[in-house]
Each structure stands twice: as C-alpha cells, then as structure tokens.
Design goal:
The complex is a heterodimer of chains A (about 180) and B (about 425). Chain A is about 75% helix and about 5% strand. By secondary structure, chain A is an all-alpha fold. Chain A has one domain. In chain A, helix 2 runs parallel beside helix 4 and helix 4 packs antiparallel against helix 5. The longest helix of chain A has 30 residues. Chain B has about 425 residues and is of the alpha+beta class. Helices cover about 30% and strands about 35% of the residues of chain B. In chain B, strand 18 and strand 19 form a beta hairpin. In chain B, the strands form 6 sheets. In chain B, strands 1, 3, 5, 7, 9 and 10 form a 6-stranded mixed sheet that branches. A 6-stranded mixed sheet of chain B has the order 19-18-15-20-21-22, sandwiched between helices. Chain B has a 4-stranded antiparallel sheet with strand order 2-4-8-6, with no helix packed on it. In chain B, helix 4 packs antiparallel against helix 5. Classes of the chains: A mainly alpha (about 180), B alpha+beta (about 425). At the A-B interface, helix 3, helix 4, strand 1, helix 5 and helix 6 of A face strand 1, helix 1, helix 2, strand 5 and strand 7 of B.
C-alpha cells in the first residue's frame, strides 16, 4: 500500500470522526431556542473544534472533546424536563463511535502499512462496539423505566455504578507502564 | 515486553464517571445510558487483556553483498496468544534502503492468530559499502480494543558486509622494485624469464638452450641470452581516513575505499602480495599477503573503515615495521585534507619508499561556490593543493589528482605516465 493511500486512511478516519462529532454537536441545537441556543451554539462550536483537533491532530484533546459534547447534551436534557430522551442510546453510541474513529485515525500512521486483515478486524470491532453500545443504552433506559424497586433502589444502583466507575478510575490511574517478563 | 495503557482508558473512564455522577445528581437515566458504553468497553478491555507471548527471530539471506545488490531480511514472528495488531518497524541503517526506497525504517502492521507463525521478507537494497549490523526491529502489539500496547525491541546480530563494485582495471601502477618470489612483473634484474634483457659470453654452467646461436656465429664466441625474470611485488594500499569530504555525489572516503578494493583485487589477480594501512583516527593495518584469503581479509578490513574524529597526532611510526616492507610500492589514496595524512606521506618519501599518490579531489564534493568570497576561497584551496602536489613530485612521488569525472583506470595510467617521466617506472 503506497504511503499516499495510508495517509488517506488516516484522513478518512479523522474526517468520519469529525462528521460524527458534528452530528453530536449540532443535533441538540434543534431542540432549543432563543439565547440558550446561541450559548449552546458556542459550546457546540468549541466541542466540534476540540473533536476535530482530537481526530486530526492531537489525541490528548479526546477527553475534553467528549466532555464538551456530553455537557452540551446534558444542558439539552435538563432543559427538556422530566420526559425521557429516547435518543440517549444514540448519543452514547455516537460518542463511542466518534472516540473509536478518532483513535483509529491517530493509530493509522502513514509510515505503517496495515495489512487488510488488520483493517477488517478493526472495522469489525468498531462497528460491533457501536452496535453493542446502542443496545446497552437501550437496555439501560429500559431498566430505568422498570417500575420495580422504587426511587431508593434506583438511586442505590446509580451510586454503585458511579462508585464502580470511580474504582475503575483508580485502577487505571496506576503507573503508566509495566515490564512484562 | 513493556506494557503501556492507552490514554483512551483514562478519557473513557473519566467521562463515564462524570456522566454517571451527573446522572445521579440530576436524576437523569439518559446520562447513565450515555456513560455505560464507555465504561463497559473499558471493563471488557481490562477483563480480556493478556500479555502476548511473542517470539521473534531475524535472519539475513547472506553475509556479503555488493553495492546495489538486494538482500532479504527475514523476520519470523510467533505468538502463543492472538495479537490483533502488531506493528513491526524494521530499522534500515544509513547506507541501505528498504522496500520502495524507504530510508530509516520500514513498518507494517500484521495480525497474528494464536500459535500462528508469520515470516515477513523485507528486501533491502545496499546503497553504500560498509559493515552493517541488521536486525534491529521494534515491535508494538495492540489488544482488540486498543486499550493497551506492548513494546519490545530486538537488537539483531545479523552482520552484512557490503563491498563496492570493483572497477575493471587493465593496467596498474608498476612497482620500481620486485620481490624474489615469482609473479607477473618483469623485474629489472636478470635471471630466468621470458623477456630478453642482454647478451653475455658463455660461462661454465650456462644451459645450452640459453645460447644465442646467431650472436655466437657473428662474434665467434659462445654468447648466451640474458633475460628479465617475472617477479611478484608487494603493494601497500595507504588509505587516508582522517577526514571525509562528503557531497551530494558521494564522498572522498567512498571513492578511496572503492579504489582500494579495485586495486587490491587487480593486484592479487596478478599474484602480487597486497597489504593495507587505513591511516586515520582509528588506524588499521594488514601485512601484505596473497591469494583469495588475503583479498577477503583486506575487503573485510576495508569495510570497517570509518572516519573517527580525533585531534591526536598520528605518524607512521605508530605502524608495525612489517606492514611497510622495504621494497613495497605504496599507493596512497588521500584527499590531502588532513595535515597528519599529508605529513605521513612526506615521512614515507623521506624513508625512501616507492610512493604513488592518488589525490582524491575534495573540491567536487565541497559544493559550488555561492559568492565572490566562496570562489576566492575555493581558488586559494585549489592553489594550495596544487603546491602540495608539486612538493611531493619534487621529492620523487608520482601524484595525480582524481577529479570526479575521471575513471580510476585513467588515473592509474596518469600515475604510470608521471612515474615514467620521473624515471621511477620500470621499462
């Protein structure tokens, strides 16, 4: 595979990630109006810039980009009121798809020639992860809609989940590299 | 192998934690639905992660090659566990080119199934002579979700020696004196041989077949033919490696090494004994020897020639006396740039050695003059070099400047003509 084509792979992944981020950033604008819309437009622009930067140039911008996109969605959710936002699984899957495509773009170095099975396996993993994320999001929403347990039980599940995630944060905050064998 | 977690783990977990906390605080299950995929992907990645047991081996299809030859480096990879993506970076040393002319390194990403063995053949083109150590390979393995990388470096020990393509030389510089062993040079002495030298009266013990009957009939006394015997010589190639003037078209050291290899092969072909003195920051020598073994020894030593920067003064007194035999012809290949090399040649002349100097012109490699001052400096340098050559010639050495466009054969013919004019060449 010539170097130019390898660079195209990188560019294609970066642009696809940016396109997904654009959808995630611009879609919430349609559901609000007035001054909030203008404020959200600024947030969306910042998110899109960060997302494009993370996908095309600096991998370290990935977390800020995800946070800004999440913040924009949270504002829309709060604004919406008590009604459950059925598109949440799509947003979750979209965020994951964006992050995976952005990291694929950073991974596809022009000097490294990826063999076809490697590309196929990566595409399969990204697609499967996105579909699984969609399904998981739907399951979470359905679980939240189940009337059993009452508010306290749901709160307990939420606290356990958040605590588990924080434990996960502590686990991954170990020293950055380890020597194996 | 060294394992490194990806920055994505922290990003995913951090965003998921914030989303879950926000969901709890705001009472919005949608935020949990958004956070769950990120957290679950990390958990799945952490649960399934296993350090790959990678084995790698590097071999090269041969140990010796010529410049512009292609050698194949074979990298065999084995893994006990599946590796979703294995980046393989083969370091291509300077002086060699990878596939598609890649310099510096060649990289590929492959996928290995559990227990699979893959052999990657990497063709490398030898661009420059020298001794290379091949097989430095960097490996980077990724897991399925690209959450971890494992890195490992192989320091290959495959040695490849790349020899310059020898020039076809039909005429060589003939030494003034020959040795006692039989060879292919017509000696100045008289004895058994083919070339007619002179007539002399018959003496008891002369072989009847030496009698020149025509001269005997003319003079009335028995006259015998005297002949020049064919003798071998000893040639020492004196390589000045103090400095290398490098330009876009090549370098003085490249030309010197190429010429030394060609001369060694040509002299050894005609049964002479050839020695080598690589005189520079790092001094190497080989005593004169003959035959194919001597050629390989000499080429191996030549391939290790490199410029080793040092300010220490070095003279020929640092060399063992047997490396410079008394009657040997010394062919010096020098750019006449470093004063230690220049002084060593004067020293050799002062000791009465038969010296021929091939002055490898650094002017062509030094680049074009870009201004008036550059031009002036260049002219002064050229004049200085010419003066130096005249000084050598006055002391009895044949000196010829080897400019870029000239073939080595042309230079040798000029050296021979110069020696003939100075009365140094036999015949």
């Amino acid at each position: 595979m010539p170097a130019a084509r390898r660079a195209r792979t990188r560019l294609a992944c970066g642009l696809a990630a940016t396109a997904v981020a654009a959808v995630l950033a611009l879609a919430p604008l349609a559901s609000v109006e007035g001054p909030l819309r203008r404020a959200l437009a600024w947030l969306a622009a910042a998110g899109l810039l960060l997302a494009a930067g993370a996908a095309l140039r600096l991998a370290s911008l990935l977390a800020p980009a995800l946070l800004v996109l999440l913040a924009e969605y949270t504002v829309v959710l709060v604004r919406q009121g008590d009604r459950v936002h059925a598109a949440a699984p799509l947003v979750g899957a979209g965020l994951l798809l964006y992050a995976e495509l952005a990291s694929w773009a950073r991974e596809a170095r022009p000097r490294v020639r990826d063999e076809r099975p490697v590309l196929a396996a990566r595409a399969t993993v990204v697609a499967a992860s996105t579909l699984a994320a969609l399904a998981l999001g739907v399951l979470v929403l359905l679980a939240a809609a189940v009337p059993a347990g009452g508010g306290l039980a749901r709160l307990a599940v939420g606290v356990v989940a958040a605590t588990a995630t924080l434990v996960l944060v502590a686990v991954v905050a170990r020293p950055t590299s380890t020597r194996v064998r | 192998m060294t394992r490194r977690p990806s920055a994505r783990i922290a990003a995913y977990v951090g965003v998921a934690a914030l989303a879950l906390l926000a969901g709890l605080a705001l009472g919005r299950p949608e935020l949990a639905a958004v956070a769950a995929p990120l957290a679950v992907l990390v958990v799945a990645g952490l649960a399934g992660v296993r350090d790959p047991e990678l084995a790698a081996e590097v071999t090269v299809d041969r140990e010796r090659a010529l410049v512009d030859d292609q050698v194949t480096l074979e990298l065999t990879l084995r893994s006990a566990d599946p590796v979703e993506r294995l980046e393989v970076l083969v370091v291509v040393p300077p002086g060699m080119a990878g596939p598609d002319g890649a310099a510096g390194g060649w990289a590929v990403a492959v996928r290995l199934a559990a227990g699979e063995e893959r052999t990657l053949a990497v063709p490398l083109t030898c661009r420059r002579w020298g001794a290379y150590r091949l097989g430095q390979v960097h490996l980077r393995a990724h897991d399925r979700f690209r959450l971890f990388t494992w890195e490992r470096q192989l320091d290959g020990q495959a040695v490849l020696k790349v020899f310059p393509v020898p020039d076809a030389l039909r005429a060589l510089v003939r030494p003034f004196e020959t040795q006692v062993s039989t060879g292919s040079h017509v000696a100045a002495q008289r004895g058994d041989g083919i070339e007619f030298a002179d007539l002399r009266p018959f003496l008891p013990g002369d072989r009847p077949r030496s009698i020149n009957w025509r001269a005997t009939a003319r003079r009335g006394d028995l006259m015998v033919n005297q002949r020049h015997p064919e003798r071998a010589t000893e040639v020492v190639l004196f390589l000045d490696s103090f400095l290398d003037v490098r330009g876009p078209t090549g370098s003085t050291l490249d030309r010197a090494v190429g010429a030394a290899a060609s001369l060694a092969a040509a002299y050894l072909r005609q049964r002479d004994r050839v020695g080598l003195v690589s005189f520079g920051g790092f001094v190497q020598w080989l005593q004169p020897g003959g035959g194919q073994a001597a050629l390989y020894r000499l080429l191996d030593t030549l391939m290790e020639t490199q410029v080793f920067a040092t300010a220490a003064w070095k003279g020929i007194r640092h060399l063992p006396s047997r490396t410079l035999p008394a009657k040997a012809l010394i062919v010096a290949l020098t750019p006449l740039v470093d004063e230690r090399g220049v002084a060593a040649l004067f020293d050799l002349l002062a000791r009465g050695y038969d010296l021929a100097v091939v002055d490898i012109s650094p002017l062509t490699h030094a680049g074009r003059a870009t201004g008036e001052w550059d031009e002036l400096a260049r002219r002064l340098w050229a004049l200085e070099r010419e003066t130096l050559r005249h000084r050598y010639q006055r002391l009895g050495a044949a000196v010829v400047e080897w400019r870029d466009a000239m073939h080595l054969q042309q230079v040798l013919l000029e050296v021979e003509a110069c020696r003939r004019r100075a009365g140094l060449a036999p015949g």
